[in-house]
Amino acid sequence: xxxxxxxxxxxxxxxxxxxxxxxxxxxxxxxxxxxxxxxxxxxxxxxxxxxxxxxxxxxxxxxxxxxxxxxxxxxxxxxxxxxxxxxxxxxxxxxxxxxxxxxxxxxxxxxxxxxxxxxxxxxxxxxxxxxxxxxxxxxxxxxxxxxxxxxxxxxxxxxxxxxxxxxxxxxxxxxxxxxxxxxxxxxxxxxxxxxxxxxxxxxxxxxxxxxxxxxxxxxxxxxxxxxxxxxxxxxxxxxxxxxxxxxxxxx
Length: 251
Fold this sequence. Notes:
With about 250 residues, this protein is an alpha/beta fold. It has helices spanning about 10-20, 50-60, 75-90, 115-125, 180-185, 205-215, 235-250; strands spanning about 1-5, 25-30, 45, 65-70, 95, 110-115, 130-135, 150-155, 165-170, 190-195, 215-220, 230.
């Protein structure tokens, strides 16, 4: 049974490693290619987009993919929509592996917003020094806020012609530890953090640090996901795959 894993997350890499040990399943991991030096999972890997729904349909048919697992980032909603449409057209099973979102807890000072644009609107009147952690592709949304200083953390630097708000750029890759997140907030006198609600452990330390230091967090809510089967962790995805493998063997 051939499975296509749409990846780019820690869970996708872990799933690929687990699947590689299962007899009867061949996995292909697909990465979007937006990160210049991605952490490559083991096994067969392809990098780059498919060319929309039609391109993904063609790939699924050409490679004779039996099942697809969408383990992309919770904010990669375009590829998730494309995966739903393509698997529906080809007629193969699709599973979404979606890590649970962070939940507000005692001590958190969150302002939850629907989009990065809404986050920028909030900052205009409430922040002076912002720790911006939404990725390089979203920088232009905040570029008009010339009266606010930004510490912008991302994996890769923005392009030379990118619209960037005032401040400094910090290139780094998670997981991040709590001690360092505290240090960043204190050293740069941060009064507000802007974050996507990505979930998981790799970047949660900044949320804990903000809670401990009484710093406000503007939290961007996740986009909606397509209808379909969902699991919250790698164990659930492996169980689902083994069920499909058993059904295929019986069939």
